[in-house]
Structures
1.
Amino acid sequence: MALDKIGIAKRIAQELRDGWYVNLGIGIPTLVANYIPEGIEVEFQSENGVLGMGAFPFEGEEDADLINAGKQTITVREGAAFFDSAMSFAMIRGQHVQLTVLGAMEVSQNGDIANWKIPGKMVKGMGGAMDLVASAENIIVAMMHSNKAGESKILKECTLPLTGVGCVKKVVTELAVMEIKDNKFHLIERAPGVTVEEIISKTEGDLVVPDFVPEMVL
Amino acid sequence: MNKVVKNVEEALVGIEDGMTLMLGGFGLCGIPENSIAQLVKMGTKNLTCISNNAGVDDFGLGLLLQQKQIKKMISSYVGENAEFERQMLSGELEVDLIPQGSLAERCRAGGAGIPAFFTPAGYGTEVAEGKEVRIFNGKPHILESALTADFAIVKAWKGDTEGNLVFKATARNFNPMMAMAGKITIAEVEELVPAGELDPNFIHTPGIFVQRIFKGEKFEKRIEQRTVRQK
């Protein structure tokens, strides 16, 4: 069965490594923080100016001055730090953040990502996404394999305005984990109960499928 | 040097139609809400506003959009404001969307006497159109120019009579860089204290960047996304 959003977040959480500083985007990526594997320590950076983001506050303890980049009220862990936006992006551009997880509308087989604009329809802006994808060494995209019309979002070439070029290393969808290298998607794992045939049929981009594709263990 | 002005009316004297303003804040967090209310009252028109976001429909810069006081917005993310989207898609409002880190650095550069800088952000995208590209360490970068403003309006938690500022938590965001980049910088603060009361070791924005400071009359501090967990 295809994963739900929590399943995607749980799978991405398995990519976390001890000692990493991690930036989580809005939506599914934010959920990753709830599934940190046992025995490892990571710190979450939010580009609006906090390192050491903690859980949501208890009801009644929200602080309007303490939010994440999704404008949600948050708390901080012991040892947290606050800073301004220029310093925040110095951390990001300067590659002091080891992993970026973000959502996408489209990803292409050369690692391009589009997630900020649908011309004539939706223009929300890129926020910090362009800075993040231009600089991060390790970018994982959390997304659905197809759009609401059933069209693949895993493409040979993006059709929407780009957020970044040749930057995505790994994609986790409700169906599969794929790596991007040599200008192709490489199928690494499939969601429990999902067939390789279904993944192939829903992937427009070139997909390399090994003889054996293990099921995700969540 | 005493930077204190009596109130918001006095603080905003000199802001005229057609000027460029920087306004601090991220979402509704750390925005100069008293000054925005005063700008609505003043009815100043044709403003170019540099601010990370554009508020929501009925708060923050959304209030100025409603009154059609803004001619151009320079922002990174504007997704929370239906009136903004309407004005932009209909062409009433000019919009320049900039990667958030580039926006922050362009303000910092403007205040720091650096006319332009190269950044990897936006290379290969619409943002790079018409901009010089250079390769550093094997990687393409685009040239971004500094931003300055006729007035920068920032919001701090505490300030002293010298204009030294301390921000609280994530309400700091764009405020320090914008304070640097204004020809005249106005700071509205929750607490205004005499010089000497703030520990010089913990000043975020030194008073040299602030020309006028006043205590805001009231702060609603609206929360945009109230997320909580149960006890």
2.
Amino acid sequence: MEKKRIDDYEPGPVPSPRGLDRFGFVKQDANTSEGGVKTNRSAHEYERIKEGRRVRKWRKMIGVGGSDWKHYLRRKPYVVKRRIRKGIPDCLRGLVWQLISGSRDLLLMNPGVYEQLVIYETSASELDIIRDISRTFPSHVFFQQRHGPGQRSLYNVLKAYSVFDRDVGYVQGMGFLAGLLLLYMSEEDAFWLLVALLKGAVHAPMEGLYLTGLPLVQQYLFQFERLITKRLEELKEEYEKKNGKLSRSGEHSKQSILPSINSN
Amino acid sequence: MDEECDYLFKAVLIGDSGVGKSNMLSRFAKDEFRLDSKPTIGVEFAYRNIRVKDKLIKAQIWDTAGQERFRAITSSYYRGALGALLVYDITRRSSYESVGRWLVELREFGGEDMVVILVGNKCDLGESREVEEEEGKEFAETEGLCFMETSALKNLNVEQVFLQMITKILEITSQRSLEAKMDEKPINLLNGKEIHVADDDDEVTATKQAPCCY
């Protein structure tokens, strides 16, 4: 368990090793320069300047280490909402996610709990977790190395969560959530953010995606199907035609959203 | 392309997590294999058009998540499926021991005369084998299933196992449509007739499944 405070260091331009994209994934096509689409230089420059301006606005909004966040959120919720929709600057996501989700408060209220879960508790899901570790973001530089720091952190967070919430335990797919968080923050921060998301510290809990029976998944699929039927009648008909009029295509169409969850 | 196919066959891949279902499918559909493939979350599917005898068949294969929790949604995919590959990993005994539970699931949610093939995957890893080929074969026989060992990595028997399943489905389907033609009556009337056979309720449901494949 390494402690690193993400809000202490300046981001700056990260030197991108050859063959990786700016998020650290191995490029699919390493020999084409910049992944094939080379945008012209001035547009690139413009994006960079815009991003810099956005970072400064955000820094002012959240204050040092997030000290002004709650105050700002109370005073100007609509500004916050608009800015979030424009995109949180990459270098501040780790901190901002913790502030928005309420996970920072959970962390402060529960000192030592994470360490306890990682070191002393055992989980029934340990084997399941291990089986999936090397299959989670295998093309990312942080998770690539077998038993490397990335894989170890991922294992710790997932195991800790499966102990923390034994009803949910470990469910396949959680690794991609925890893994993404680990790219932006320390293990302990990632763990509490996972807790905040699934248990609903500030927003509605997401644990229904993983609970037995997958109630929230079922709800979303139902809503999705109704929306398609209501808004995209033609698409629905086309789908049924393409699938050779399978007798229960209604049921399939609502569920075929699932493949898209799994495609990177 | 679609219109040229004589049949659309739907089949499912089931079995414990990490036995190699997704790689079997990618080998069959795209001739690809990835050692680091992602765990399947929920369900995915792939198509391949394949010629068997003089028929062009569109095989629509649904690949399901192996983890227990996902059965809440995956089991509904068995309905309308004409075939299933029940996969275990020959190097992991626990995946073989789960086969019984998967069968229960199939029989509960799947069609009556679904073609089921028991598949022992990863047969290239003979040195860490935990389930003997004979054992799998015998179990399959007692349960009335077909059996094959495969290696998605080495591309051994993968094509064959899918082909065997599709061929069997084709046989059953042609048999069915022949019977229907002989009777010169629509399928639902046929069902009506069979209801008179008091102690043969199962047959009725079996016939109902047949139209799904057209």
